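Usage

Read records sequentially. Each one opens with the input sequence:
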Amino acid sequence: MENLLSYIPLDLSLIAGNFDRFLYGVWTTLNLTFLALALGGVLAIPMALARAARHPVWNPVVWSYTYVFRGTPLLVQTYLIYYGAGQFKAVRNSWLWDPILSSAWWCALIAFTLNTAAYTTELLRGAIVDTPKGEVEAAIATGHSYAARMRRIVLPSAFRRAIPAYSNEVIFMLHGSVVASTITLQDILGVGRWLNGRYYLAYEGFVTAALLYFVIVFAITRVFRALERRYLRHLAPRETGMRPAPKTVAKSMEHS
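and closes with the structure output:
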């Protein structure tokens, strides 16, 4: 066994000895990612409705917001919030500075939330616009108000059809969370960089981080596949053709 380990170009003992730090990095990454996705999803629903309805006031405002946050890198957005906000004296003297804007964790959460909200808004807008007209017309014919149509017909249908595309957004958000390591947070990549820097390593920290991201992405894809099988079952292709006649019917035909 020792001879086999000698051929592995990684110091597994250092990885094992510091694996508790990687677990802390996993917690930080998942905490930031999924909390940002939850908050961003809540923000995206009313903005997607405003975009889909082409509201004369809110539609251009939301469009401008999504254009800015989808058109600039997440790293730049995080830097502007973490480093840029402190350049203004009014911000430093406000109640937001000490508990929120002076904290790297809060700045990362704000940046991630605003970024994923922009992408989710456009994703949901497309799903709402693509709602089959028959469903909407049926809701109108049965006397549903606009709010009732959205709550009971359009949004549930849009959420189901948005599952495959939203799975990509979740994975992209997970990958984008590596930005947190650049503002002193010890996420998965941050722990990998710390390990390499502490022990003058080249690969161990990054390889471990890559494997951990791989495992998390694999789990996310399995969850979304299960959701697709459950909520998009009616969209799966069905077998066509005539069913074979029952044996009793076939025998009676032969005797006739």
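Summary fields computed downstream for this record:
- The chain has one domain: 13-235.
- The radius of gyration is 26 Å.
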